[in-house]
Amino acid sequence: MIAVVGATGTGKSDLGIAIADRLRAAGRNAEIINADAMQLYRGMDIGTAKLPPGERHGVPHHQLDVLDVTDEASVAAYQVAARADVERIQADGGVAVLVGGSGLYVSAVLFDLSFPGTDPELRAQLEREHEELGPGILLERLRTLDPAAATTIDARNPRRLIRALEIASRSEVVTPSLPAAPPAWRPSRILHLRRDREQLVSALHARAARMFDAGLVDEVAALREQGLEQGKTARGAIGYSQALEVLGGTSTVDHAVEATGIATRKYARRQVSWFRRYADAETLDVTGADRGDLSALARRIVP
């Protein structure tokens, strides 16, 4: 198994395709498994930079377009499905190429982590309490039950706060975050892509503008008809929440582009911190690299 990880905008999808091309040219089957949580959703294409089918070079892709926007993404469910893909690909003598930047989803495949299921009744109760009492009460309860989780949780994100408290309120022994040195699930080669911060920040703001120019607001308008605003996970995706504000008349496109760029930059910073903890990863500097450069890099990775 080969994992291509890194922050948004580092070229993971292009390198993943280039690696798969090299393996297939050498006579080995290679298939790609998506590890971007928002690319799990059907119809969320522009704002997630999902690689169009015509640019996938005929390489099979898995864990793309498997959820409706009203579904709630679950790392536990993803772990089961993605590992089943890995096992099937390897059983056929192929190479699974895991590509994505959602840190916990990547780690759920690569490392020996376990995740609790959901408790619908407890979740509904916590959601009511959050609405009626606010996040402060729930955060204080989390500090009592799981002080470590309380220090890292973003209390401004209701979904994550409620999920953390749901986990802490149950008796199962779980590992909802990445330990310092997690054991590997299966042998893998991890490629961590890095770009110069100044260049990455500039690229992410340009990317936000391109997405809105490419029709992100129209995409979100169509998804709203499918229930996007009722989706607990999908509606909060970067770019999509900003486009919803444009459609709701509370923001302009220019403001949405700027807000999307800022949110993406903050997310990229968290991704860099997450993947820095992968002690066995090979760090690859792709500053200034275009598709041709990434293809050349793939030739060095797969001689």
From TrEMBL:
Gene3D superfamilies membership: 1.10.20.140, P-loop containing nucleotide triphosphate hydrolases
For this protein, what is the EC number? 2.5.1.75
Q: Which cofactor does it need?
A: Mg(2+)
Give the highest taxon in the source lineage.
Bacteria
Task: Please tell me which top-level EC class this enzyme sits in.
Answer: transferase
Q: Which residues make up the binding site for substrate?
A: T8, G9, T10, G11, K12, S13
| InterPro entries per UniProt | Dimethylallyltransferase, IPT, P-loop_NTPase
Q: Which one of the record's GO molecular function terms can you name?
A: tRNA dimethylallyltransferase activity
Which NCBIfam families does this entry report, sorted A to Z?
miaA
Entry's family note: Belongs to the IPP transferase family.
Subunit field text: Monomer.
**PANTHER family reported for this sequence:** TRNA DIMETHYLALLYLTRANSFERASE
The protein here is known as: tRNA dimethylallyltransferase
| Species the sequence originates in | Curtobacterium aurantiacum
